[in-house]
Design goal:
Layout lengths: L2 H20 L12 E12 L12 E12 L6 E15 L2 E6 L2 E6 L7 E20 L9 E21 L3 E5 L7 E11 L2 E8 L9 E2 L2 E2 L3 E11 L1
Antiparallel strand pairs: 1-2, 1-13, 2-3, 3-6, 4-5, 6-7, 7-8, 7-9, 9-10, 10-13, 11-12
Keywords: Signal
Pfam families: OMP_b-brl_2 (PF13568)
Protein name: Outer membrane protein with beta-barrel domain
Length: 230
Amino acid sequence: MNLKLLFAFLLLSQFVLGQTTNDSTLVDSRYREDQFYVSATYNLLANKHEDVSQRGFSSGFHLGFIRDMPINKKRNVAVGLGIGLSANSYNQNLLIDEIPGGYTYTVLDEDETSFSKNKFTTYVLEVPLEFRWRTSDASTYKFWRIYSGLKFGYVFANSTKFKGNSETIKLTNVSDFNTIQYGLTFSAGYDTWNIHFYYALNPIFESSAKIEDSTIDMSVARIGIMFYIL
């Protein structure tokens, strides 16, 4: 996650909001909350195989733009449609290796196998669709908001990395990853700072990915902070 980029976005948002709030002569009766968004999340694996566990910190970084489309006269209720990019890493003990004609999935026993890193990362083109409620008006730039909806994602790239004492395994574009991801979203807060949740409705892997004879039905849940920037 690029913390310098996130910090720069936050400084810019505070500057823009501060400049806008101080100019009370500019009132747009047909205002929109067209916004850039930046989010940092902690990524959790749900529906795990009984022997799969997370280790270390699994992070996500998301940014994009949402077009605000008000649907009432007060313009405090709207539909938002956007586009963005995200990178999500998952540190865990499921080793992915390549064999002729496919891949193997092995749950690592840390008592038997010593390793310093084992993770997979997905890079996603996101399309958020939100139903938006807020307490804003044409001259209020700090307000409460509740945004909920769906987020669709296209996994355009993925990578895995295992680093043990005696070997390193790196893979890219593993075909068993589900290229289409979708889930429920919820964001709520005041002004720039908001809590954000995402819960996936489909698994990370295709049905071809198996631990022994069992399909890997792991999905994703994310919790973090969302920053909206006018």
